[in-house]
């Protein structure tokens, strides 16, 4: 799910193209709005909102969910905040990095 599922530079990540590509691989694409999306002045403040809480709880209920962002390193974007929330609420988070690498998200206090 992406908050702004469109890209002039990378059209393969537009909502329609991404949905079609994932479906061909047997993966369901779900766009649930902007509640978990980035591009905020203070993402940490947003995490206490009802919108974030509701969307994060819905994400936590999904099995094998994936969240995406244009940033390649999750440590440099809002995914790290979402991952902190998920891990602190009992979920396992594994970041998929380039070259087939994976990194478990560390448990931290939020």
Plain-language structure description:
The protein is 33% helix and 5% strand. With 110 residues, it is mainly α. β1 and β2 (102-104) form a beta hairpin. 15% of the residues are buried. The model has no long low-confidence stretch (mean pLDDT 86).
Structural class given helices, strands, pairing?
mainly alpha
Number of domains: 1
Nearest-angstrom radius of gyration? 14 Å
For the largest beta-sheet, the strand count, sense and barrel status come to:
2 strands, antiparallel
End-to-end distance:
23 Å
Q: What is the string of helix and strand elements?
A: HHHHEE
Low-pLDDT runs of 5+ residues are none
Question: Major sheet: order of its strands?
Answer: 1-2
Regarding quaternary structure, what we see is: single chain
Overall mean pLDDT: 86
Number of helices: 4
Strand residue content = 5-15%
Which word captures the global form? Answer: globular
Q: How many β-strand runs?
A: 2
Helix content: 25-40%
Task: Produce a short descriptive summary.
This protein has helices at 15-24, 43-46, 50-61, 79-88, and strands at 94-96, 102-104. With 110 residues, it is mainly α.
């Amino acid at each position: 799910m992406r908050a702004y599922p469109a890209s002039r530079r990378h059209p393969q990540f537009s909502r329609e193209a991404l949905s079609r590509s994932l479906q061909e691989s047997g993966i369901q694409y779900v766009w649930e709005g902007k509640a978990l999306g980035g591009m905020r002045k203070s993402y940490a403040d947003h995490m206490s909102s009802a919108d974030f809480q509701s969307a994060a709880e819905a994400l936590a209920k999904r099995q094998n969910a994936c969240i995406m962002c244009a940033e390649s390193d999750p440590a440099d974007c809002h995914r790290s905040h979402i991952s902190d929330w998920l891990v602190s609420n009992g979920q396992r988070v594994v970041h998929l990095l380039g070259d087939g690498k994976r990194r478990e998200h560390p448990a931290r206090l939020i």
